[in-house]
Design goal:
The complex is a heterodimer. Chain A has 7 helices and 10 strands. By secondary structure, chain A is of the alpha/beta class. In chain A, the strands form 2 sheets. In chain A, strands 2-1-8-7-6-5-4-3 form an 8-stranded mixed beta sheet. A two-stranded parallel ribbon of chain A has the order 9-10. The chains are: A alpha/beta, B alpha+beta.
Chain lengths: 167, 563
């Protein structure tokens, strides 16, 4: 099983990935595909189930957010190391649509060298690629303290610091 | 010029340490080669045919003497004693050692320079007018806007993994000297009918294998709103740009597929939502933000009596070589008595754009003595000392001439743009530097060159088009035919206000024929032009391809029959 970093800690993944043809269990925490979610929304909405949804990086977030807003987790995928589409999806979920649940990064870009930027864009959990050293990754996730862009609300914005200094 | 504050310095220093760690992990086998490749590209480092190549950013082409001395130091310490000015106003080193690159970047950071995002599929160095701040046809200095955009685009976490590279160019003058219409985004700083400052935005231009001219998608964007609008363009591109085929991944392909009107609509929709978001206020320039940034680029303290100097005119009368230099390499300045001086990096026998460490140090000294300690790199691969009092020009010229930096050929045929070609670049199909030298040999008589007048010859060693061949008045493109180097020729391109893409003459020419072909093209022009005032480009646009084609291919056939 892949190591999960969530909320700044190495945690056990409490969700199980459910393939589209797997039988629906009676209770538990699962991640299902967007397709399955859209087809079986009513049965998936049972109280005993806790369902996260995996959204492909080709989907326009604004077309699905109303349907997903109540779910505790949205997983976004990086099919390759250099495919950065889910960065924009995460920002839209977090900033524009004020989604407050867990946004999980999955796939080939979930590596030490991209974690800080993923975190900036609103991801809160990271399913590390198998070859990653979890302790090094945890270290890379120290919050950044300074940024040129108003993306990560935790970082001090350079232009704000300058405005304050000039005032 | 812009000076880093503690924040800029901290961000650049952190980046050096991050790359040092990535290099260490790669060398220790902890980082897969393909991933290190993408990370090192974002720090300017390519692996070329013979050695790594490091591309250092010169934001909007502006350098201080202190920075140029550091570039000389790096050339001497880590390379073979020279560097190469590129067509995007940057400098490249062709022989650094991979394991020394973190040290080079640390040296760079000590003079407020870096190689961040000079390669890779991210937002690249921002280019602008090499006469910014001194040109007479300029509305406002574009560099404060370039620097604000540089900071926004540097380390932007959302846009570091785009479908393909992304290039901005800014212009604020009547004559576009920054080739803005062949960039992913061209920004023209303009005034609207109410006298307010703002921007016209062009999107989807580019060279390479699918050359296209950018489309106007917004006539007037208010001055304060630049970054939110650029963010909207980038987000639309990051979401919708193609990633299935590297040759179809630039924004120009997306704009072509949607159509410019639809693309503009997508951007406007996205922009409206950004403006309604909590980040809008932080992306917006306040009047103070703009004033603080503009203060960095305030005009130098020019001497009011500079215009009274009479020695400048006298020196031209007494020294015809100096007069030739003034005619070709000196441009008007917005302040009377001052001139902008082009330092030619196109001397015969030198690869276009190459400059040695000693030459860099000399130019750094001269910039300090005569031009307020600043200089610019041009996208035509020359340097400019932009603020020289006319009374100093004769001394400056003599010093430049002594170092082989005063070839009076700016804008002429031998002032050609040329990529490193097969001699250095792993992408190239054909050599370009050797061809440039052959052409130089043909036109070594300066009298002949002057008679031919303004011709922009641009040459690329492959269809990635780093030499901008598509927008050359004469364009040359190296191609590979069964392992041999051949050259396609285009005529009539331009990257200026009258922007156009060149037309192919016909079948390509062999390595032996290409210099002859250029000579033939020039001869046809000289016989076809209506008078000496008609430039090559004007003449070509009037007479068309037919007379050129007739001479070029008849001669080729005759040669074949004779062979």
């Amino acid at each position: 099983m892949r190591t999960l970093i969530r909320n700044g800690r190495i945690e056990t993944d409490d969700y199980v990935w459910l393939s589209d043809d797997a039988e629906l269990p009676a209770n538990g925490k699962f991640i299902v595909s967007l397709t399955r979610w859209q087809q079986q929304r009513e049965s998936l909405a049972m109280d005993a189930l806790c369902v996260g949804v995996n959204v492909p990086n080709t989907v326009d977030i604004s077309t699905v957010i109303d349907d997903l807003r109540g779910q505790p987790l949205i997983a976004l995928s990086f099919p390759s190391f250099a495919d950065g589409r889910a960065y924009s999806q995460a920002r839209l979920l977090r900033d524009r649509h004020q989604y407050t649940g867990e946004i999980r990064a999955t796939g080939n870009a979930v590596v030490l060298d991209q974690l800080a930027m993923l975190q900036c864009c609103g991801f809160t959990s990271f399913a590390l690629r198998d070859d990653q050293n979890p302790l090094h990754c945890l270290d890379a996730l120290r919050p950044i303290d300074l940024a040129y862009q108003p993306v990560d609300t935790h970082a001090s914005l350079v232009s704000t610091l300058r405005r304050a200094a000039a005032a | 010029m812009y000076q880093y504050d503690e924040y800029d310095q901290k961000l650049v220093d952190q980046r050096v340490e991050q790359f040092r760690d990535q290099t260490r992990r790669f060398l220790a086998g902890e980082l897969p080669e393909e991933e290190f490749r993408m990370l090192r590209l974002r720090n300017g480092l390519y692996i070329q045919r013979f050695a790594p190549m490091l591309r250092v950013a010169i934001p909007y082409g502006l350098l201080s003497s202190r920075q140029l001395r550091m570039l000389a130091h790096i050339a001497r310490t880590y390379d073979k004693g020279y560097g190469h000015i590129t067509t995007r106003q940057n400098i490249q080193y062709n022989w650094p050692k991979l394991e020394q690159v973190p040290d080079i970047l640390a040296d760079m950071a000590s003079v407020q320079m870096h190689a961040i995002q000079t390669s890779g599929n991210c937002i690249r160095n921002i280019t602008s007018d090499h006469l910014a701040g001194v040109a007479r046809d300029e509305l406002v200095d574009p560099r404060p806007y370039c620097e604000l955009t540089r900071q926004w685009s540097t380390f932007h976490p959302e846009f570091n993994w785009l479908p393909r590279k992304f290039k901005f160019a800014f212009s604020s003058s009547t004559n576009d000297r920054a080739a803005t219409r062949v960039h992913d985004v061209g920004v023209h700083i303009v005034r609207n009918a109410d006298g307010e400052l703002g921007y016209s935005i062009y999107v989807g231009g580019g060279l390479g294998r699918m050359p296209m001219i950018g489309h106007l998608i917004r006539e007037f964007l208010p001055e304060a709103q630049l970054l939110s609008y650029l963010e909207a363009i980038l987000r639309v591109y990051n979401r919708l740009g193609r990633r299935d085929n590297i040759h179809r991944a630039r924004i120009k392909v997306l704009v072509k597929a949607t159509g410019p009107a639809k693309f503009a609509e997508l951007v406007e929709q996205e922009w409206a939502q950004i403006l309604a978001s909590p980040q809008a206020a932080e992306l917006e320039f306040t009047p103070d933000d703009l004033a603080r940034m503009k203060a960095h680029f305030a005009a130098h303290p020019h001497r009011t009596d500079a215009v009274n100097d009479a020695g400048f005119d006298k020196a031209q009368q007494n020294d015809s070589a100096f007069a030739a230099f003034v005619r070709r390499n000196v441009r008007e300045h917005r302040v009377d008595g001052y001139k902008a001086v082009f330092v030619s990096l196109k001397a015969p026998g030198i690869a276009p754009g190459d400059i040695t460490a000693e030459q860099m140090e000399l130019v750094a000294d001269l910039a300090e003595r005569y031009s307020f300690g600043e200089l610019r790199a041009t996208h035509d691969q020359n340097l400019v000392l932009a603020d020289v009092a006319q009374g100093d020009l004769y001394d400056l010229w003599q010093a430049l001439r002594g170092a082989g930096l005063a070839t009076p050929n700016i804008g002429l045929l031998t002032d050609m743009i040329c990529c490193p070609g097969l001699d250095f670049c792993s992408l190239a199909n054909a050599g370009s530097i050797g061809v440039a030298q052959d052409i130089n040999d043909r036109f070594d008589s300066l009298d002949h060159l002057y008679d031919v007048g303004e011709i922009k010859l641009k040459m690329s060693g492959c269809m990635n088009g780093c030499g901008h061949h598509t927008v050359g008045h004469i364009g040359i493109l190296g191609v590979d035919k069964k392992g041999e180097e051949w050259y396609q020729v285009t005529l009539g391109g331009s990257a200026e206000n009258d922007v156009s893409l060149g037309d192919r003459t016909g079948p390509s020419f062999s390595r032996d024929q290409i210099a002859d072909a250029v000579q033939t093209i020039v001869e046809v022009y000289l016989s076809e032009r209506s008078d000496e005032e008609e430039t090559f480009l004007q003449c070509y646009r009037r007479v068309g391809m037919a007379p050129f084609k007739a001479r070029l291919y008849v001669e080729a056939e005759e040669e074949e029959l004779a062979a």
